[in-house]
Design brief:
Length: 493
């Protein structure tokens, strides 16, 4: 795969535009189909050398054409091949029709397929472009294959998955592996699509990179390639204030742990100074638990405003353990001109009037990062959360534009979005991140990069990636304290 395309994700519509532009440039479309089908056959032989029979399920479009090419290549390699078609193959058109004719192989109706021991299914029914629920004959075959535990190799995307949203459209195959072409699609990375695709192989069928670059939108897989040039760099004249002063707001005495986790992660992630801003009732417990992290008493918004006038503070984290209500809203509005990471209780405090938050941070460069999980996202953006036609990427992008903020839409398929339409899907976070406090650590990491001068979106993307890498280093038995300890141990990006 050409390295420049590695992290690009094309929607099905964008991939269709790439195919069309390629044909307009004079590249024969059947040549692309031939290379695609040959790649599928090679992958099938490599992954399933012990298959007794390759069962190729061919749909009525170009995905089916890829299947007919693969069937011919497998037969020429000496494999046993059976083809089953959906709809009348005599009605095939264009490249798919030519691919079937060149195969010279008979086919049977899809509903006649009965799984047998030793079968491997090559799913070439629909691919990534499907936008409607799969028809009943396909649902029946999906169920048969699943019950018989037959291995599946999917062409482009397991049939039944939406290539844009990564969700099943009624029913979908669960593939052991998937062969796609030129770039992956959002549906390969978003859940549950990521699980249903198995191992994804990307094969270059010859569409010029310039065409891919032209049709590509702003969605990428999160990777250091995208933001490493913006990471903080230290020189011989670096001092602690040049590395930024991060402030994390503490909750009351009974809820101080989350802020200390954020603060510890912020210090590990490179902030030159970190201060926990604590209410008076929590000063004693915070003081007993902090060493390198400093402590400052803040009870009222007037206390905060006075401190802002006198201290050199670079960025802020508000929300972890803070408490929901008017005090949180007052503090946030006092910080409207400052770089702020708003998490947890800070987000929920604006559920009754999200526009109050959005309006406060609407001016100037983006200096607000919001880190909602699913429930918190629905509190700030109820209409977007309820829109089933939108993908997680599209929801995050619309939310970022509305809030004039970097959005970290958390989950096992975290999406980071910017108001200008950029969106990164993160894939490196292990299941061990599903532990209490991991979100508090992430907020502190974002805040630290923010404090060191990274733009909001890039700081969020980098912190999400390093958060996942830290969790992988700690291992399965990880706690949030372990995660915070490893927050600054970065791999070479």
């Amino acid at each position: 795969m050409r390295k420049s395309l590695d992290h690009i994700l094309l929607t099905p519509d964008e991939m269709g535009a790439a195919d069309a532009a390629s044909a307009e440039s004079g590249i024969p479309s059947f040549g692309l189909m031939e290379r695609a089908g040959q790649a599928v056959a090679a992958s099938a032989l490599r992954h399933f050398p012990g298959a007794r029979r390759f069962v190729v399920l061919c749909g009525p479009g170009n995905n089916g054409g890829d299947g007919y090419v693969a069937a011919r290549a497998l037969a020429q390699a000496g494999a046993s091949v059976a083809i089953y078609h959906l709809a009348d193959p005599q009605k095939l058109k264009g490249d798919a029709k030519l691919a079937r004719e060149l195969s010279g192989l008979p086919s049977q109706p899809l509903q006649d397929y009965h799984p047998a021991n030793g079968d491997v299914v090559i799913d070439a029914l629909f691919g990534a472009g499907l936008a409607r629920a799969v028809p009943e004959p396909v649902v029946d075959v999906i169920h048969k294959v699943r019950e018989a535990k037959i291995p599946v190799l999917a062409v482009d995307l397991p049939s039944g998955l939406c290539g844009r949203r990564g969700i099943p459209l009624g029913a979908a195959f669960e593939a052991n592996c998937t062969v796609t072409f030129m770039t992956r699609k959002p549906g390969h990375l978003l859940l549950p699509g990521r699980v249903r695709c198995g191992e994804v192989e990307v094969f270059d069928i010859g569409i010029p990179a310039r065409i891919i670059d032209t049709v590509a939108g702003k969605t990428r897989e999160n990777s250091p390639v995208l933001w490493r040039n913006l990471l903080p760099a230290s020189g011989p004249d670096t001092h602690k204030y040049r590395r930024g002063h991060l402030t994390v707001f503490s909750g009351p005495a009974s809820r101080t742990g989350a802020a200390r986790l954020s603060a510890a992660a912020g210090l590990k992630t490179g902030a030159g100074l970190v201060t926990v801003a604590s209410p008076s009732d929590a000063m004693e417990i915070n003081a007993a638990s902090l060493t390198a992290v400093m402590l400052h008493q803040i009870d009222t918004v007037e206390d905060l405003e006075t401190w802002l006038r006198t201290a050199k503070l670079a960025a802020f984290v508000l929300g972890p353990g803070f408490g929901v209500g008017g005090r949180a809203r007052q503090f946030v509005l006092a910080l409207r001109d400052r770089p702020l990471v708003l998490d947890a209780d800070g987000i929920t405090s604006f559920r009754d009037d999200p526009s109050e938050l959005f309006d406060a941070f609407a001016d100037g460069n983006t200096h607000l990062a919001l880190t909602p999980h699913e429930g918190e996202f629905s509190r700030l953006f109820p209409d977007l959360a309820a829109d089933e036609n939108l993908s997680k990427v599209e929801k995050a992008v619309k939310a970022a534009e509305r809030a004039h903020a970097a959005i970290v839409y958390k989950g096992a398929d975290t999406v980071i979005a910017a108001p200008d339409g950029r969106a990164y899907i993160d894939t490196n976070g292990p299941p061990s991140l599903a532990t209490a406090g991991s979100g508090d650590v992430l907020a502190g990491m974002i805040g630290a990069l923010f404090a060191q001068g990274m733009p909001a979106f890039d700081a969020a993307a980098a912190a999400v990636y390093f958060h996942g890498e830290a969790a992988k280093r700690v291992g399965r038995s990880m706690t949030a304290e372990d995660l915070a300890d490893h927050a600054g141990v970065w791999p070479d990006p």
